[in-house]
């Protein structure tokens, strides 16, 4: 393990597992995950275009995108094993051969991606870390936008969403101020996820998309 990997692991703040996993989840984690796990460095063969969803939760959005666009490759980064197992069920059920899962900190995968290798990045409903002393834990820092700018193709899109007004303002301000995304947000459609259906009653979500200049 190199120094960069060690540093990335040291700053990961999320959960790995919550409730007990059912037997089918254990079977998929043991049998299917090794076959669809993203490699580092990532193997981009087989698809001319790739997208990445960071923190895919239960995987509903990623699985729907992959089913609708089978000629596109999709990376999903999510260290929460309960969510990984749900996406594995969708991959198995819908025979999604175009999905690669990275069950670790997304920054490890991003560091290994070649320049201009992604057509789109999704960051949907990340943890808001609402306390001021925890703002440094928010994923969309200026340094992360530098990484996004490197791995996105010119004209590629960064899409993010939140139901937390302070976090959304934070993300918009940093994207607006970044030279690679300074063209401002373009129209972005709503994206339905399990989290959104469960938690957003009375808390409207906002969506934004920025093109890589």
Radius of gyration: 17 Å
Low confidence ranges: 1-10
Overall morphology: globular
Q: Give the ordered list of helices and strands.
A: HHHEHEHEHEHEHHE
Mean pLDDT: 88
The largest sheet is:
6 strands, mixed
CATH level 4 superfamily = Vaccinia Virus protein VP39
Helix-strand category: alpha/beta
State the separation between the terminal residues, measured CA to CA. Answer: 34 Å
Number of DSSP helices?
A: 9
| Oligomeric organization of the protein chains | single chain
Strand content: 15-25%
Question: In brief, what are we looking at here?
Answer:
The protein has one domain (3-211): 3-Layer(aba) Sandwich (Rossmann fold), CATH 3.40.50. 38% of the residues lie in helices and 18% in strands.
Output the keywords.
single chain, 213 residues, alpha/beta, Rossmann fold, 6-stranded mixed beta sheet, 9 helices, 38% helix, disordered N terminus
Indicate the topology.
Blueprint: H1 3-10, H2 23-31, H3 33-36, E1 50-54, H4 60-68, E2 73-77, H5 81-94, E3 99-102, H6 106-112, E4 118-124, H7 142-151, E5 152-162, H8 165-177, H9 194-199, E6 206-211
Parallel strand pairs: 1-2, 1-4, 2-3, 4-5
Antiparallel strand pairs: 5-6
């Amino acid at each position: 393990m190199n120094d960069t990997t060690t540093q990335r692991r040291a700053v990961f703040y999320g959960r790995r597992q919550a409730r007990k996993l059912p037997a089918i989840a254990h079977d998929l984690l043991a049998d299917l995950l090794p076959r669809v796990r993203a490699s580092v460095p990532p193997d981009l063969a087989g698809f001319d275009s790739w997208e990445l969803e960071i923190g895919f939760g239960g995987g509903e959005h990623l699985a729907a995108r992959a089913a609708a666009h089978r000629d596109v490759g999709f990376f999903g980064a999510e260290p929460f094993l309960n969510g990984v197992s749900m996406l594995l069920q969708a991959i198995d059920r819908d025979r999604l051969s175009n999905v690669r899962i990275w069950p670790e900190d997304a920054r490890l995968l991003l560091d290994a991606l070649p320049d201009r290798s992604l057509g789109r990045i999704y960051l949907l409903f990340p943890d808001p870390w609402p306390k001021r002393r925890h703002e440094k834990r928010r994923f969309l820092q200026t340094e992360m936008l530098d990484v996004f700018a490197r791995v996105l193709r010119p004209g590629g899109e960064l899409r993010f969403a939140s139901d937390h007004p302070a976090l959304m303002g934070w993300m918009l301000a940093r994207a607006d101020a970044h030279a690679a995304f300074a063209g401002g947000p373009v129209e972005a459609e709503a994206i339905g996820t399990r989290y959104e259906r469960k938690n957003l009653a009375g808390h409207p979500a906002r969506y934004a998309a920025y093109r890589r200049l």
